[in-house]
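Protocol step 4 of 5: obtain the predicted structure for the target chain.
Materials: sequence only (see below). No template structures provided, no constraints applied. The aim of this step is simply to have a reference model before the mutagenesis design in step 5. Sequence pasted as it appears in the construct record:
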Amino acid sequence: MAGSTTAERGERRQESSGPPPARKFTPPRLRTIIILAVALVLLATGSVWLLYGSQWLRVERVSVSGTRVLTSAQVREAADVPVGSPLISVDTEVIEARLRRKLPRIDAVDVVRSWPHGIRLKVVERTPVLLVQKDRNFVEVDEEGVRFATVSRAPKGVPALELTLSRPGSRAASLRRFGEDRLVREAVRVAGAIPAAVARDTRTVKVRSYDDISLELGGGRTVAWGSGEKGSAKARTLTALMKASPDARHFDVSVPTAPASSGS
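Step 4 output (structure tokens):
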């Protein structure tokens, strides 16, 4: 019989050199799975013990920053951080709420874990913009109209707030319509709009009604401001008016487009 031709041998080689068979997936051995599972359990157990059971990551110190009137000791006492407890278990939100509740002078506070052994209390205190006299003491009012502290000595540079009676029944009518808190907020609004140079010389902010607010400055000078509206325009007008009439004693910017000054 005649042997295979060259073409036939080539076809057989192509058939035999086709793609290799796919490799079958071999699942991990049971022993390997058990070892990995045990390792994960040990790792998790060790982490829990390190965070909660060991003596390495516990609260040992509490630091305070940002205070101006309050002392660090006052803040630490009010915070009541559980020294000796696991650092991870300290509830920072509860401490923040406790500080704001016990120390109304605090406007904001950030309680931060300082690994491995500390808690940091970053405090922002409220700043008084007005004072309300109460007997022999003074109640501090911040820029939001919050009455946050009572002090025996008036802070320097903070004007007094007076709710006064301009004519019979007017104060009562304003209080019924707006409420005392609203009138206080309007006074705060005015205090925040006063030009810096004038603010340094302002002794008293008087509120007779919602739209009858005035300023008493040093040297017996007065400013009729009106309501708390258009504060920026009134501030610009007052600055220009004082420059134009430096010897005047009384200024009226209640209508900023029609200002007036009088006296000398």
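Step 4 remarks: The chain has a mean pLDDT of 85. The chain has two domains: 61-125, 130-262.
Proceed to step 5.
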